[in-house]
Amino acid sequence: MAKDPVRVLVTGAAGQIGYALVPMIARGVMLGPDQPVILHMLDIEPAAEALNGVKMELIDAAFPLLRGVVATTDVAEACKGVNIAVMVGGFPRKEGMERKDVMSKNVSIYKAQAAALEQHAAPDCKVLVVANPANTNALILKEFAPSIPDKNITCLTRLDHNRALGQISERLNVHVSEVKNVIIWGNHSSTQYPDVNHASVITTNGAEKSVKDAIANDDWLETEFITTVQQRGAAIIKARKLSSALSAASAACDHIRDWVLGTLKGTWVSMGVYSDGSYGIQPGIIYSFPVTCEKGQWSIVQGLKVDEFSRDKMDATAKELMEEKSLAYSCLN
Amino acid sequence: MEQEHIILLQKILVLLFCVTLFWKIIKYMCGLLNMEKEPLTVLVTGAAGQIGYALVPMIARGVMLGPDQPVILHMLDIEPAAEALNGVKMELIDAAFPLLRGVVATTDVAEACKGVNIAVMVGGFPRKEGMERKDVMSKNVSIYKAQAAALEQHAAPDCKVLVVANPANTNALILKEFAPSIPDKNITCLTRLDHNRALGQISERLNVHVSEVKNVIIWGNHSSTQYPDVNHASVITTNGAEKSVKDAIANDDWLETEFITTVQQRGAAIIKARKLSSALSAASAACDHIRDWVLGTLKGTWVSMGVYSDGSYGIQPGIIYSFPVTCEKGQWSIVQGLKVDEFSRDKMDATAKELMEEKSLAYSCLN
Questions:
Q1: Is B31's pLDDT higher than 60?
Q2: Which of A149, A123, A126 lies closest to A258, judged by CA?
Q3: Count of structural domains, chain B
Q4: What is the CATH number of the domain that holds B163?
Q5: Could A250 and B93 be called an inter-chain contact, meaning their C-beta atoms sit closer than 8 Å?
Q6: Is B197 found in the same domain as B185?
Q7: C-beta atoms of B54 and A19 within 8 A
Q8: A residues 224-243 closer than 8 Å to B (CB)
Q9: Phi first, then psi: what are they for B119, rounded to 5°?
Q10: What is the pTM of this model?
């Protein structure tokens, strides 16, 4: 028996990330190859014709899992009955722009969309914020949609997590699926802390080894590796003249899929979630932690040892998030 | 009594021996099944462009060759796009795809073609708003002559080729002519996009899900002379019964006019709405084309592929023409014996005529 379709909202669906994301959702990459979906696509009025073009292409692709498409500029219609909301809509970062430049524009967008989601989305709607500044947009959304449970509002740091896996696998010349349990702490920005202290790799003879030992170069891990991952977004923009779309869309699918279907035993992933004070991180911000997922719920992996180097990095990115929070609130007043 | 007991004991021992042997064989076979397949190398030309950007994540996720088939991606583009192409490679690494076993991003056509098992030729001049397909013909024909030589020299034996860049049928024909050691049957062009569009239009008209409609046919050229034919198409109605689409629609006039022009001109409609050519749906159709070719079509279902004409249905041999095909064991075969009415005959001949004209035009460009 076919499952009941799940409604997935993508905001900013006429843009680059949306265009990469919707075929992935329609093919079952986000929710599994046996889960029918109904896509809700939202964008602003100037993009209405382009959005309709995307709807036409989705129909033209004859996806077996796609049970319906709603393309609209009306936020209430877009939010109606949605079970999963992927908030991609916002101002894209262009070459040379800092993330704070886009803050004030995006904060008012997220306040409005919070109200619509709260009113129209299905109960237990899971929200993933992608548009930058992701953590702070998610915080604003949470503040203005109080009836959506805190734990249902997350932001995307899976892209950074996957980028870290990629960098380690390239360095060790192994396949990326042999590396696991990196952590992205903090803000999806240049202060994020990619941490491999607890990461492991399956070596060529099949044994599991710590990444720190396999790399055998703490200096590289504490400097070049970190800055490469932190600034990867800018490197992509420099090469493509456009923001990452393919990899961001793929990471969004991974984030939701692991959240809904669960993480593999012994493996964790990184998600930006509402801080509960774990690891000495201030509650009241959306901060990226290592999490496992089961039965549709995430839980922060507890008890990992944090050395002094890591402590400083984790605190620095928390500090930036507190500053962004103040800046965001000042924009709203 | 003793004798019977001994015979019974012997029978039990033989039975136990057989069961043990059988169990060992089953376990061995299961072990074989768990072994990971060898990766297949897939080439995408024009990979830095729109369609390439939509296509490569689909390939890397297993949409093209199945969720258990590792792939190595070869991406080719021209020198001005080299930096953007490298950006795509970086993103593929950043996406940490479990099935993606390697990425080669290059502007060197020999390196790109080396060892490829599947070649998806997307590279060419994209059609912009207002441009006719013939406008891009002469530019693309010289590209395909050069790439034919490279594929012939460097690709793996039995490489399967799908030409997407327009004019798709004629580019595929040029490629075939200049890569004579690649079997004719291995060179195809994409009409699956039109096929899927036709399914979409029928499903919208009948208000059913698109997976309930099957066996439309796209005859001929991937252009405005294509003939979307539903004479043999069927739909599963709301009560579960299978019905002919013609009967379900009950409007032959619509099927012979508006439906046909909508599918024929859908590409232009997408360009008008997006200000860009179809990428998402074209990439998806390319995956469907290859997947059905390699893994086989479902029983009772056919698809449309642009293939080297063998004279079936009175269509001139020597052109790449879209036919209804089934696929099995990595080979396509044209569905034979379908009745062709007068209306269809005219349409099928008209699109064949255009292909003959394109063939002449292409050859004149080469001289």
A1: no
A2: A126
A3: 2
A4: 3.40.50.720
A5: no
A6: no
A7: yes
A8: 232, 235-236, 238-241
A9: -120, 120
A10: 0.92
Note the pLDDT tens digit of each residue in B341-355.
Answer: 999 999 999 999 999
Distance from CA of A227 to the nearest CA of B (A): 15
Spatial distance between the Cα atoms of A282 and A284, rounded to a whole number of angstroms: 6
Interface test with B, best of A57, A161, A242 (most B CBs within 10 A): A57
**Which CATH number belongs to the domain containing residue A166 in this structure?**
3.90.110.10
The string over A59-78, giving b where at least 16 C-beta atoms fall within 10 Å of a residue's C-beta and e elsewhere, is bbbbbebbbebbbbbebeeb
A161 and A64: one domain? no
Catalytic residue (choose from A40, A161, A188, A255): A188
- B222 counts as catalytic: yes
- C-alpha–C-alpha distance, residues B321 and B188, integer Å: 9
**Do residues B211 and B199 lie in contact, with contact meaning Cβ atoms separated by under 8 Å?**
no
Contact status, residue A40 vs residue A74, Cβ threshold 8 Å:
no
Domain boundary among A155, A172, A202: A155
Bridge partner list, A32: none
Please check if B133 is assigned to a binding site. Answer: yes
Nearest chain B residue to A57 by CA distance is B281
Predicted local confidence at residue A2, as pLDDT: 79
DSSP tag of A18: H
Neighbours of A190 (CB within 10 A): 15
Average pLDDT, chain A: 95
* B359: containing domain: 192-365
How do residues B78-91 score in pLDDT, each as one tens digit?
999 999 999 999 99
* CB-CB under 8 Å, B280 with A22: yes
- Looking at the structure, tell me whether residues A175 and A308 fall in a common domain: yes
Burial class (CB in 10 A: 0-12, 13-18, 19+), B318: middle
CB contact under 8 A, B275 and A50: yes
A101 in a structural domain? yes
What pLDDT score does A105 carry? 81
Is A147 within 8 Å of A284 (Cβ atoms)?
no
**Residue B291 in tokens:** 């997947």
Would you say residue B124 has pLDDT above 90? no
How many angstroms separate the first and last alpha carbons of chain B?
A: 97
Both A284 and A166 in a single domain?
yes
User: pLDDT grade, residue B126 (50/70/90)?
Assistant: low
Q: Tell me which chain A residues have a C-beta less than 8 angstroms from the C-beta of B288.
A: 62
State which of A155, A185, A216 marks the end of a domain. A155
The pLDDT tens digits for B224-249 are 999 999 999 999 987 889 999 999 99
CB pairs under 8 A between A and B: 137
| Sign for the pseudo-dihedral over CA of B170, B171, B177, B181 | negative
